[in-house]
Amino acid sequence: MNIVIDSNILFSALIKDSTTRKIILEYEGYFFFPYYIFEELEKHKDEIQKKSGLSKDDFNQLLELLLEKVHVIPNEVLDRHKDESIERVKEIDLNDAVFIACALAFPNTILWTDDKKLKQITEIQITNTQEIIKIIKK
């Protein structure tokens, strides 16, 4: 099963020792996310590190552990689904198009997000953290 995580899921795992972090670190499969997430991470890294309460070294070590569980999808792959993903999110939030494109790029993919507005998109299975727990336990 392919699972795309959005930036807020990754950021949540970095900020708090939570269920989200545990799922990412302990899940036996891998997660996908678009290369774009690195731009977002770089933009907010200091803020996220500060919120986490971790030292820079501990934060970077945690980030490395999380990234070991992730396949980064290059922009070239996502570009093939750009128009379709923009069409699906144009009434919701264009910033989410990249995550939709990532999910569209791979058959049978779930998008893990806690953004309730994205549930309006019915062509892709979109789940929140509570739902992902049930899916992974199966």
What does this protein look like?
The relative contact order is 0.19. Strands 3-2-1-4-5 form a 5-stranded parallel sheet, sandwiched between helices. By secondary structure, it is α/β, with parallel strands linked by helices. The mean pLDDT is 89. The termini are close together. It is globular and about 40 Å long. The longest helix has 17 residues, at 36-52. α1 crosses α2, α1 runs parallel beside α3 and α6 (82-89) packs across α7 (97-104). The chain has 8 helices and 5 strands; from the N terminus they run βααβααβαααββα. The protein has a single domain (2-137), classed as Rossmann fold (3-Layer(aba) Sandwich), CATH 3.40.50.1010.
Keywords:
14% strand, 138 residues, alpha/beta, 5 strands, 8 helices, 55% helix, Rossmann fold, 5-stranded parallel sheet, globular
Write the layout of secondary structure elements.
Elements (H helix, E strand, L loop, with lengths): L1 E4 L1 H9 L3 H8 L4 E4 L1 H17 L3 H12 L2 E4 L1 H5 L2 H8 L7 H8 L4 E4 L12 E3 L1 H9 L1
Parallel strand pairs: 1-2, 1-4, 2-3, 4-5
Helix pairs in contact: 1-2, 1-3, 6-7
